[in-house]
TrEMBL record:
Reactions catalysed, as given in the entry: Hydrolyzes free adenine bases from 7,8-dihydro-8-oxoguanine:adenine mismatched double-stranded DNA, leaving an apurinic site
Job of this protein: Adenine glycosylase active on G-A mispairs. MutY also corrects error-prone DNA synthesis past GO lesions which are due to the oxidatively damaged form of guanine: 7,8-dihydro-8-oxoguanine (8-oxo-dGTP).
Record protein name field: Adenine DNA glycosylase
Keywords: 4Fe-4S, DNA damage, DNA repair, Glycosidase, Hydrolase, Iron, Iron-sulfur, Metal-binding
Low complexity: bias regions: 15-24
Cofactor binding comment, as recorded: Binds 1 [4Fe-4S] cluster.
UniProt-listed GO biological process terms: base-excision repair; mismatch repair
Alphabetized CDD domains for the sequence: ENDO3c, NUDIX_DNA_Glycosylase_C-MutY
Cofactor(s) required, per the database record: [4Fe-4S] cluster
Xref: Pfam families: HHH, HhH-GPD, NUDIX_4
HhH-GPD domain span: 86-235
Amino acid sequence: MVDTEAAPVKSARKTAGTTAGTTARRGRPSQPAAVQADLLAPAVGTGLAEAAGLLAWYDRHRRDLPWRAKPGETADPYRVWLSEIMLQQTTVTAVKPYFDRFLQRFPTVGDLARAPQEAVMQAWAGLGYYSRARNLHACAQMVVARHGGHFPADIDQLRALPGIGAYTAAAVGAIAFGIPAAAVDGNVERVLARLYAVEEPLPKAKPLFHALAQALVPSARAGDFAQAFMDLGATICTPKRPACVLCPWSAPCMARAAGTAETFPRKAAKKEGTLRLGASFVAVRADGAVLLRTRPPEGLLGGMAELPGSPWTPDGPNGDILAHAPLQARWATLNGTVRHVFTHFPLELTVLRADVPRKTPAPTGMRWVAAAELDTEALPSLMRKVLVKARIEIRPV
């Protein structure tokens, strides 16, 4: 942490450049993260200079985002928290419309806490990573029950809430409450990896990146600094073709000086998950209603609506595929498959469709949903793909 008003400015590039640069380039992470950070930081400069330069850039180029407070305004902890949960594994472009609709439906943390989980899951449908929605609801309920409807202005207490990890606690703490905490996401890791030419690959380098980031955080304007760091990675220090000439940290950046910015951050080879196969059954009643069921509350896509189907396994449906059909009907197998990629494995579904009489009863644990009501169901994007494959139109409500 650096006090932007009191810390002395001094350049240590010459005195520490060889030691730090050698450590970074050769990637010898034998020291603890804090020790590595102390070695690397002088090779670039003190945190004061970097923090001041980034904040000056941010004042001119800050992004206008719906969850951000305007200059001079106080950030709303609820909006900050909601945006940070939504932005996990999801782009800003994808989150914007969901954020606005979610706030209209649940304007306060109390409104969210009082809502039934089904309503929360439906509002989240399409954003993916659905455990986030369940944790979001549980977190809101705990904030109301234990903290009187106010998010705690304390990092440890924030981390004790459901669904809030180290990054989210730091982001909410810094942005909403001005706590000088380092919020290190993928954008920040990329900036730091290039700034210090860190050879240690992710995810092993995460403790080092956190130590480096924390050394840069100013005691004043911690929230602006956190958002500036994110904006720098999102708009300037991008994964491909970074705009180094526009970067406020171009001069001290070690990777830019070496002409290797695009090669950072280093990443360990990722293991591909095993392909899983399954079948999905689209039963359509004469009046257009579609047969759905709800997945178990825990696990993958927990609590979401789905079309009946077989288990997803590497070998696919065992034996007769129709043994997994939810009811007796003339099932037609559609050409091609629906492919979807989860975090840990890819999935291919064979889709079968059957048109059945209007009076066909729903099997136990399932329900008929009118075509006009499909958009009100908590249907994940995978199931929406299956419906599109079966030529079922989901009309916005």
